[in-house]
TrEMBL record:
<dbReference type="InterPro" id="IPR004941">
    <property type="entry name" value="FP_N"/>
</dbReference>
<feature type="domain" description="FP protein N-terminal">
    <location>
        <begin position="80"/>
        <end position="170"/>
    </location>
</feature>
<dbReference type="InterPro" id="IPR057251">
    <property type="entry name" value="FP_C"/>
</dbReference>
<feature type="coiled-coil region">
    <location>
        <begin position="14"/>
        <end position="76"/>
    </location>
</feature>
<keyword id="KW-0175">Coiled coil</keyword>
<dbReference type="Pfam" id="PF03258">
    <property type="entry name" value="Baculo_FP"/>
</dbReference>
<protein>
    <recommendedName>
        <fullName>Zinc finger DNA binding protein</fullName>
    </recommendedName>
</protein>
<dbReference type="Pfam" id="PF25298">
    <property type="entry name" value="Baculo_FP_2nd"/>
</dbReference>
<feature type="domain" description="FP protein C-terminal">
    <location>
        <begin position="176"/>
        <end position="229"/>
    </location>
</feature>
């Protein structure tokens, strides 16, 4: 009788164990299938993220190139413009007369300058008084380089315009906001930090080189400038 009871108990325990093991085996298979689907979905999401990132980088590159081309076109349209900086502003000022006096100082023909106007301030309502707005002068085709060269070899002050102040007046190329920002940023981040010795502008293009004997690098965008930090460091 005891033997029969033990046999029955063993059978009951064996059956229960088999049922339990089968249950957990099925659950493990179910979880493995879910994990497999999850990993597959995760891989799909990762691939989609990579595709989106590559698309973003591609679009950003195209946008940067497009902005550079637009800025270059706008800069070429300003190839016959110069800016006279440092001339204090006054009411009812005669900009053509100011331009003529500077022409005489530079020993250039006033007929080269067809039009002159004050450049609008970017933030006219700012309370802090900044430097006077430059005078933009439109020149005859092909005259700009001569004006720039003559101004580099001639010292001009307010006294040359019949004024009492001796503030230095200088002439520079007229720049688009993008080019002007790149020039300022390059001088600040490259030259003033000592990474390079020369940052200058030529024909609307920002150039930089580490020493006098090194080759010049063109800076057309902020990414170019960041790359120059690595090159010059």
């Amino acid at each position: 009788m005891l033997s029969d009871i033990r046999r029955e108990v063993r059978e009951i325990v064996r059956t229960e164990l088999q049922v339990t093991l089968q249950y957990y085996s099925d659950k493990i298979d179910e979880y493995e299938e879910k994990i497999s689907r999850y990993e597959s979905n995760l891989k799909t999401v990762e691939n989609q993220c990579k595709d989106m990132k590559n698309t973003y980088l591609n679009l950003k590159l195209k946008n940067d190139v497009l902005e550079q081309k637009i800025n270059a076109m706008e800069q070429r349209q300003m190839s016959n413009l110069i800016e006279i900086c440092g001339v204090s502003e006054s009411e009812n000022e005669n900009l053509q007369d100011i331009t003529s006096k500077i022409c005489a100082k530079l020993q250039l023909s006033s007929a080269d300058a067809s039009k002159a106007y004050r450049k609008k301030k970017m933030r006219p309502n700012v309370a802090v008084q900044g430097p006077p707005s430059p005078i933009v002068v439109s020149l005859r085709e092909g005259c700009r380089d001569q004006w720039l060269s003559s101004s580099r070899n001639t010292s001009i002050t307010g006294r040359d315009l019949g004024r009492e102040d001796s503030t230095r007046i200088y002439i520079r190329e007229s720049l688009t906001p993008t080019t002007a920002f790149l020039l300022w940023k390059s001088k600040k981040d490259l030259k003033e930090t000592g990474l390079c010795k020369f940052v200058w502008l030529k024909n609307g293009v920002v150039l930089a080189k580490k020493t006098e004997n090194d080759k010049a690098h063109v800076i057309r965008s902020e990414s170019d400038m960041e790359r120059m930090k690595e090159v010059f460091s």
